[in-house]
Specification:
This protein has 702 residues and is an alpha+beta fold. Helices cover 21% and strands 23% of the residues. The protein has 4 domains: 150 residues, Immunoglobulins (Immunoglobulin-like, Sandwich); 321 residues, TIM Barrel (Alpha-Beta Barrel), CATH 3.20.20.80; 61 residues, no CATH class; 98 residues, Golgi alpha-mannosidase II (Immunoglobulin-like). An 8-stranded parallel β-sheet has the order 24-23-22-18-15-10-26-25. Strands 2, 3, 6, 7, 8 and 9 form a 6-stranded antiparallel β-sheet that branches. The chain has a 6-stranded antiparallel β-sheet with strand order 27-28-29-35-31-32. GO terms for molecular function: hydrolase activity, hydrolyzing O-glycosyl compounds.
Length: 702
């Protein structure tokens, strides 16, 4: 089922409904702007209603087929007279109602919890929502929030139950660190590419000194940036694992491509079965993986490799258009002969010069990246890339490598016959790839690259586990904090728009997918976050880090973002790592270390529910400007995160922590600063008056 929405679009009903909600809320609010007492008075109070599939509200968020699931709904104390879980089975086209019953009252006395059980979820995807009644009044609630009208049965905004679909727990509980290998650390100078070592694409290789890469990675010859090398390698990554795993505390390594290629970025693969000599050997890769997996040098870790499977390089022997260095091919490539055994690996419009490539048809597009033709199910390309036991995908999932997952580059484009992807064939390929991956390692991660709403690949559990969260994290965060999009273009949103964007993009995805979406401040394809936020004098980085480590999903640090590495778009987003900054004397590194430690200590930051506080669930900003606040809660703990997106030195903020269940009179501690606050009584509701620096935040633990 395709629930795909336009890229980061707000749903048309949402803004109109938000206006209606605020008007309706006005009828329920006193002069103070806070809820009056609830009761059975034919009015359903919307502000207190909450459910997601966190551990407090869903007994079995990843159920096996035919299992039972108990769903919990939070409402205002003594407010409702009845409620129902309503679920829709797309395979049968049937809708079923499950009556709910009162289960308990929150210890603060502000909320009631109602429960209903789906006794058998069957084996096909279900969508569900809630019907909530107070006498003659009715409200409806799904992943998009509260409404006065019933959601459509097949709405993209409903909650999901997908029997048998699980995402890797190690991704839910881990912290990622992305490395562009040539620019991280030179552990073996003996394998460095030297100036003039070989030519490719009309460019000579250029060796630059490591320190020169702190400020620029531009080539000496215009247009030859892909041939600039600094010497980073696999041995260097292993040498610096203690920084990643011990100093920072991250445990998931994602490497940009490492396979043989003439360029520094390696997105034009010459040989998928050979580690690029500038990065080391297969033994170096095995040793690095072993060190990552070990718990002797920090937490047990995991490795995700970059799979560039939409296209090869033109130097790949399967294609055979170009050579470089000492490369030799023992086979005849598709570009060389129509009788080549690899001719059907590619699609030619007019052989040999007009072939489908990454972005078009040669000689246009990117001719150095000829596009693979996946043909029909069972084709040689499908066997070679993922389906057969000796395929690229399975080779590295199996010993002696035993990597833990694949990031799929340009994943939506994989297709047959030169087609551009995002169609039925692309989804068939991804379904087959998932089957192949999970047959080798059921706990392996499949991480897709997609810049828009990726729900078409994520909403039924048959393709990817997750996607890079450009759409639901990187872009909205950048526009809110920096006033620029991820590419550095001027684009600004206010706090209400930011909150709505995040809510909408969460609603697009199943809960267990949300938990493993990778949240990046930036990547090798964006302008550096510190560059975008340069007007904040570094404080934007701190605010971004706090959001990154407390939001739903898996934090993924792009090497250097933790210390505020600067750099524009490609290639300047790929500067060399300045190891003088890799210390807790750097404020960003120290904050990153603390945030990772907190995320490790508090499970609610990893898998807990996400409850909006400011703006709250009906859009009330509580009179604040530039303040975004939310709670992460589970059965045992609650944390409240407050971000101050203003340039003022400090802001005093009244945070409605009663929506998180914090009791009046209790003490909360800011886990970042150590400052303690008392929850104050304001109109029968609990608030915390917090002082926060501009472009900074607080994490309040009760």
């Amino acid at each position: 089922m395709n629930r795909q929405h336009d890229h980061h679009s707000t749903r048309p009903w949402h803004w109109a409904s938000l206006f209606i909600l605020i008007l309706l809320a006005g009828a329920l609010l006193g002069a103070s702007g806070r809820a009056l007492a609830c009761g059975n008075n034919n009015v359903v109070h919307w502000r207190e209603i909450f459910h997601d599939q966190g551990p407090m509200f869903d007994s079995n968020p990843q159920p096996a087929p035919n299992a039972s699931v108990t769903l919990t709904l939070r409402v205002c104390y003594h407010d409702i007279t009845s409620a129902n879980v309503v679920y829709y089975d797309a395979s049968t086209g049937t809708t079923t109602w499950v009556p709910m019953s009162w289960a308990s009252t929150d210890p603060t006395g502000q909320f009631d919890y109602w429960q209903g059980t789906i006794s058998d979820v069957g084996s096909s995807e279900l969508q569900y929502w809630f019907q909530i009644n107070d006498g003659t009044a009715t409200a409806w609630y799904n992943a998009a929030g509260v409404s006065s009208t019933e959601p459509a049965a097949a709405s993209a905004d409903n909650f999901y139950i997908i029997p048998g679909f699980t995402t890797p727990d190690w991704m839910k509980n881990g912290v990622g660190y992305q490395i562009f290998p040539d620019r991280f650390y030179d552990g073996d100078p003996g394998n460095d590419v030297t100036s003039g070592q070989y030519s490719y694409g009309g460019c000579e290789t250029e060796q630059h000194s490591w320190s020169s890469g702190y400020t620029s990675v531009e080539a000496n010859v215009s247009g030859c940036n892909s041939e600039v090398f600094f010497g980073g390698d696999l041995v260097g990554i292993q040498d610096k694992l203690s920084y990643i795993k011990q100093t920072l505390g991250a445990n998931i390594i994602y490497l940009n491509p490492i396979f043989e290629s003439p360029t520094n970025h390696k997105y034009d693969t010459a040989d998928y079965y050979t580690v690029d000599p500038a990065f080391g050997t297969s033994t170096d890769l095995e040793n690095l993986i072993s060190a990552i997996h070990s718990n002797n040098n920090g937490p047990e870790g995991y490795l995700i490799l970059d799979g560039v499977f939409n296209h090869t390089g033109d130097t790949n022997c399967w294609f055979g258009k170009s050579t470089y260095g000492n490369e030799t091919c023992s086979v005849t490539g598709a570009y060389q002969s129509q009788s080549s055994p690899y001719y059907d690996y590619y699609t030619f419009q007019t052989w040999p010069t007009n072939y489908y490539d990454f972005l078009g048809i040669a000689p246009n597009g990117i001719p150095s990246m000829p596009k693979l033709d996946y043909g029909a199910s069972g084709s040689a390309v499908r066997c070679q890339i993922y389906a057969c036991s000796n395929s690229v995908v399975q080779t590295y999932l199996l010993p002696p490598y035993a990597i833990d997952g694949w990031r799929l580059d340009a994943a939506q484009y994989l297709d047959a016959g030169g087609n551009s992807g995002s169609d039925a064939t692309n989804h068939q390929i991804m379904q087959e790839l998932r089957t192949a991956v999970k047959s080798v390692n059921p706990n392996a991660e499949i991480l897709g690259e997609y810049w828009g709403d990726a729900s078409a690949w994520l909403d039924d559990g048959t393709e990817w586990d997750s996607a890079m969260n450009y759409n639901g994290f990187t872009q909205p965060l950048s526009e809110w904090i920096c006033g620029e999009d991820e590419k550095g273009n001027s684009a600004s949103i206010d706090t209400a728009q930011y909150a709505t964007w995040l809510w909408d993009t969460r609603a697009d995805l199943p809960w267990n997918v949300q938990e493993v979406m990778t949240n990046e401040l930036g990547t090798h394809d964006t302008e550096r976050f510190a560059q975008r936020c340069s007007a904040t004098n570094g404080w934007g980085t701190y605010e971004g880090l706090i959001m990154q480590f407390t939001y739903v999903g898996t934090p993924m640090i792009y090497y250097g973002d933790e210390y505020g590495m600067m750099g524009g778009n490609d290639p300047e987003n790929r500067r060399t790592f300045d190891w003088a900054d890799a210390t807790t004397a750097n404020a960003g590194v120290a904050l990153t270390q603390k945030l990772i430690s907190l995320r490790t200590q508090y499970p609610e930051l990893r898998t807990g529910s996400f409850i909006p506080l400011v703006p709250d669930m009906i859009g009330d900003l509580y009179g604040t400007t530039g303040i975004y606040a939310f709670a992460r809660v589970d059965q045992n703990h609650r944390l409240v995160v407050v971000l101050n997106d203003t340039s003022s030195t400090q802001s005093n903020v009244a945070v409605p922590v009663w929506l998180a269940g914090d009791a009046i009179g209790s003490t909360v501690t800011d886990l970042i600063s150590g400052t303690q606050y008392t929850v104050q009584n304001n109109g029968g509701r609990g608030y915390v008056n917090v002082t926060i620096d501009g472009h900074y935040g607080a994490i309040l633990a009760q």
